[in-house]
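As noted in the main text, all predictions were made from sequence alone. Below is one such record, for Nucleotide exchange factor Fes1 domain-containing protein.
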Amino acid sequence: MAAGGQPPNWKGLFEWSMQHHDGTMPSTFEGRVLTEADRKWFTEAMAYYMKDVVERMREIKGGLDKPDDSEGAVEEKEKLLDELVEIVENIDHARDLTKIGGLQTLLALLQNPHPSLRSRAAEVAATCVQSNPPVQDWFMQGGALPKLLELYEDRDPTCRTKALLALSCLLRHNAAGLDAFRQGGGFTQLVAALEDEEPRVQRKALQLMGHLLQERLGDAAEACRLGLPHALCNLVDHDQNEMRHAALEVANQLAKDPATLKLLKEETALKDHLRHAEATFRSSDVEDLDAVKEEVELCQHLLDVLSQPPPAAAAAAVSEPGSGIGDRYWRQARGLAGDIASPRRAAGMQVALVPNGEGGNGQASAGNVAA
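Prediction:
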């Protein structure tokens, strides 16, 4: 029996053993007399790994619940939260944390005056609920959604980013959560976050919007009514590839539904921004064009759909990017690159994609670039 009359933590011992030997190589153990230092190291290692994880979470919770917010206490709480987020990566431990009252501790920390604690608490919450339906339900029932929506508008950009991360994990494959999010004004805040001054927040908001529309396209009309097409205008030609790609994906999702496609068409500035993105692609080097292949497809597909009359546009909107005009341009550009024999010359070429209706027939052309 372990100390205190408790049975040994065999699971902890097993995990320790697996970390120190994976069975893929022969043992290098040689019998020898252990020194006092060896014995001390082994005893401390066994004590650490055989410690009850739930008991450790209780200790962490107790430390986080202390009302002391002095500088030293805040630093200690930061360390405790960093440790806790690693523990709850195990879904069983995430459930145990909820059972011992950890949710209320996290909710209180989401309103702590120190942003470093608010953001860390949101990250722990995100880790707990990720791909963990029972914990998602418990967090919803415990009032996590309203608190995260409040943090969503925090003055600190890291807190806003972590709030969006936690919301994304909480709402994934969670129909009841999506309903509560909509009823709580979540889409209003999410559309506003797309115009946040902090790129990290914009990127997380785009990812969450794309996920929500993928889960339930019926919410697209509500998002459009709240100004989603306008918010996308400055993002579809953003100078950051990841941001631009996510915005183009969201816009293409909206184009799949005739009702939201109509709303996209009403945002006349959107086509101007798409043409600007298209011009950027057209001026890309051959090597760069390969890296943005999917973006070329998304941009050209969307322009094609927005330019068609209503009946044809509705039919075209349900087709997927990749088999249409953007993919055709990309293949033509890559074919051109293959015809260039000299690598030195290829490095000095630009690919010009000439779309239909602009003095060309969708052909690719090339020209020398001044050094």
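The first strand starts at residue 349 and ends at 353. Residues 223-371 form one domain. These features were considered when defining construct boundaries for the mutagenesis experiments described in Section 2.9.
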